[in-house]
Amino acid sequence: MQVRSLMKLYVDIEFTDRSNAFYEKFSTRASIGQILEDLWSMPAHRYNAVQLLSALKRALANAC
Questions:
Q1: Could you say which DSSP state residue 64 is in?
Q2: How far apart are CA 45 and CA 36, in angstroms?
Q3: What domain range is 27 assigned to?
């Protein structure tokens, strides 16, 4: 669940509408990226990430 939430936050940051968000989103994404890298080293979280990405890939394929 942590992987899904972090990936959602990573994407949601793009749609922040504050005036200083342009600069903030890069540091926030860098922090999230580091956490995701650390989680990738843990087999259970890696499995969750692969499952999530596979589901997204299937959803995109079905949408086309």
A1: -
A2: 9
A3: 2-63
